[in-house]
Here is the input.
Amino acid sequence: MTLQIQFGKRVREIRNSHGLSQEALAYKAGIDRTYMTDIENGKRNVSIQNIEKIINALELPIEDFFKSPIFLNH
Amino acid sequence: MTLQIQFGKRVREIRNSHGLSQEALAYKAGIDRTYMTDIENGKRNVSIQNIEKIINALELPIEDFFKSPIFLNH
Here is the structure.
């Protein structure tokens, strides 16, 4: 599984664990809602500037974001 | 410090610890050498597909890549 797909899965997992809607997370991150949908579905080659916005909006250290079985092959 | 700048610093740190030249890492990752220079200098809004290539070429788990004091404000 590519990192792009894993990233989307992890965003969705954390967003759901925070009880946030996709729309609420997109708004908080300053990212278009439809773009956020594509990111979660692994359909966008997301840039590091947008990665930063999303991880900040999820309010967890980046180290914890990437500490997940989702990323085990990387 | 932005994640873009931190990412470049961390790539450089690990590359040096492996005794790899910038050219060797660029070749291994399949990325243009001048583009790799810009990435290490925090000058490129690098995409997740290129992040994947670079971290794979550095041969460490992505979790370990982001486990560093460099990323402490994220």
The interface with chain B takes residues 2-4, 7, 45-49, 51-52, 55-56, 61-63, 65-68, 71, 74 of chain A (CB under 8 Å). Chain A has one domain: 3-68.
